[in-house]
Known about the structure:
The complex is a heterodimer of chains A (about 600) and B (about 240).
Chain A: E1 7-18, H1 22-34, E2 40-43, E3 61-62, H2 73-83, H3 90-109, E4 143-144, H4 150-164, E5 168-170, E6 173-181, E7 184-192, E8 197-208, H5 229-236, E9 241-242, E10 247-254, H6 264-267, E11 271-273, H7 281-284, H8 294-306, E12 311-313, E13 318-324, H9 330-336, H10 338-348, E14 357-366, E15 370-371, E16 377-379, E17 385-391, E18 396-397, H11 409-430, H12 444-455, H13 462-476, E19 480-481, H14 483-500, H15 514-538, E20 547-548, E21 560-568, E22 571-578, H16 582-586
Helix pairs in contact in A: 1-4, 1-11, 2-3, 3-11, 5-15, 13-14, 13-15, 14-15
Chain B: E1 4-15, E2 20-31, H1 36-46, E3 66-69, E4 72-75, H2 81-88, E5 92-96, E6 103-105, E7 108-109, H3 111-120, H4 142-146, H5 159-163, H6 174-185, H7 192-199, H8 213-217, H9 224-233
Parallel strand pairs in B: 1-5
Antiparallel strand pairs in B: 1-2, 3-4, 3-5, 6-7
Amino acid sequence: MARKLHLHSVLRCDALVIGAGGAGLRTAVEIIARKPDAKIIAVTKVSSPQKSHTTTAQGGFAAVNPEDPIDKPIYHMFDTWKGSDCSSDQNVTKKIIESAWEQTLWLDNHGLHFTRNEEGRFSKRTFGGHTLEFGEGPSAFRAVFEADRTGKGIMDTVWGESLKGNVSFVNQSIVTELIFKDERCRGAIIFEESRGEFTAVLAKATVISTGGLGQVYKITTNCRQNTGDGLAVVLREGLPVMDLEAVQFHPTGIVGPGILASEALRGEGGFLLNKDMERFMERYAPKMKDLAPRDMVSRSIETEIREGRGVINPNFNLPHIWLDIRHLSDYVHDVKLPEITGFFKKFAGIDPKKDLCPVRPTVHYQMGGIPTNEFGEVQKSADNIVLGLYAVGESASASFQGFNRLGTNSLVELFTMGKFVGERIAEYLQDTDDLGDIPKNAGEKSFALFSKYFEAKGSENLWKIRETMRELMTEKVGVFRNEKLLNEAINQLVDFKEMAIHIKLSRSSLIMNQELVDRWELDNLLDVAMVIAHGAKNRKESRGAHTREDYPERKTEFNYHTLAYMQEYGKVTLGKRPIDMSIFEEKSNNYKRFDFFARKY
Amino acid sequence: MDKLYSLTLKIHRYDPEQKKSWVQEYNIEVGGMLRFTDVLRKINQEQDPGLAWTSSCEHAQCGSCGIIVNGRPLLLCELLVQNAITQFETTTLTLKPLSIAPVLRDLIVDLQQAYKRVHKAKPYIIKPADPPIEGDEHRISPHTMESYVEATRCINCFCCAEACISSHRHFLGPNAMMANIVRLFDPRETSKKGRFDILYADDGIARCHTSEACSFVCPKEIDVAHFIALGKEARFR
């Protein structure tokens, strides 16, 4: 059926925040702190900002008090650099880590319920790859936390502050297109699902904070809405994304649905066992053992499974290994980790106090994202930014995480970067002209795309394509990759995109039409999957979470970030962005620790 | 694979364009360990791509998927097939949207409307205390926190509001009240008056009939009624 889609309304604001999770709302709150009269519109795909994926983060927030007599911010910087497999940008790493402690105090002053010790001060726990004395000392207890719901604490706090600061929320809405005028980003086109209407939001500054892409894979900790939307929208505007081949597999997803079982379980003393009840991590990381970084632990688990030392779960017919936390005290189980204990009971039917927990690697996080500088300004190439457009949080890559993220560093990044981006936008708003009229062609790309969905004929099944694609990505672009598998994946993705043209929607309504959104998400997933596969194919080396069986070593010639553009499906153009080495280049104390070196744990 | 179960689902549907409601029956074979979010996804995949329902995290941490199954408000993601059959002693299950807000389509309600009540309870610190030392954290004893921290686990799924016999038309609701009560305990909140104004307003705590239905249905197993009772007695230490 032919239908004429059009804009129903035009809204105007100072800042449009696309994605109202932790990163987006921290940005919004900072803008308001600096410009209390700023009008901010925050769009979220979920039914309320409080439902955002940030709320599921469990373990903690690493932050070194500059006054700490034992731990030092420079150790955290070193651990981040080493953990990233020498691929994080050092200017960003320094900036974030030096601000982290101040941000925990901000959270404390705005109501987050950090778990306390007997003195009434923050309790701290350790995570994989966090050490003292440049990896030569013991594990560092540097993460503050709220039991095992730290992300929820952060989400509730910034959401509360956004309400207090009168941020306008537009819930259950997706962003389908960016608006550009005179080389500047001037807002976006949003589609409000409950009304079935397109709205143009003209904004002086636009922030993309749409989160991750976990749904590209079959088993993931990511929520249903994490379909790489922001990345796909940016790609469609001809802008690049960066390092998408760096996908983090969290070692301990609960077998079956892949629900996260925090690294805090190992930080508190849990360990991994194979079929033979062997603590196999001792073989792979003699020093850090179970607290090696996530990429190493996930590869180790997959290797155990491949070599026949895994266990098959009868309910899901999935291979896994065991996580043993039976020996932890009741206090740890009941007070410090109550949510996760509950997840094992509810979703796996086991009691972690008495039973071994079945876990396996699950897709958790994208280290890459929309390339930005240290202020969150979106880049169109390694040296040029897009005026008025910002990105922050998991959808962005500054890059703090390089090719492998350490536990807790996601919350640290989204929160500190949110503040920096807010600061930058407040400055930008000072001297930005009025928005003027809406450009004539605004919305046309969205209308063309959605009309195509409605007009499609054929018998292809939307969900079958989606599920087959997720299986494909898991099998061929997963923990272990090689040239042959990647070529197969790329070819099959081209077929899926072609098949998707022949999906006929079951109804033509625009109002709360979940199937329509599913269809749009499928395009986003396919687009992002293609870029992941191409990035992985081009990077003929192994670095952090990106492992090529045919090129098992890290190589100097690949010491750069991948910039990827996709003008036409399957035609990916690749560029480079250098890795910032400013700590090394400053030549101050300990600078030699920030050179390239081979990781050992 | 584990044993398959044959379920009959009677799902309440609503079409906002035709303004039409009806109950549609679906028959489906599923594994016992599947969550009901997986079951509905399977219906979307195999039988009816148009059936609308909502979820997000799908492990009881966000509170998006509150629903009524055989009369009981619960989270769709938290209900496993085998547990549903044990709990309700039947393989025929009726799924209805929550009644706390208008239905948008099928099982999706307008949570934005429901959330207005939580917003009224001011889920933040109205007027924060200064920290003891500049550049340092507040000192809060873990024993002080013990008295209220359980209430902060609330995810605003509105199951308690659904079960509450005091009717959500007159009462802000157990979850909203609890958000207010948390800050009455929180030593960092200095605007106690602002908090009491919410507690004793017309739509405040006096509307509670102490049925304790809130505690009975809470998916996070929070003793909501306990916090409401503390609110009624004004015992915040």
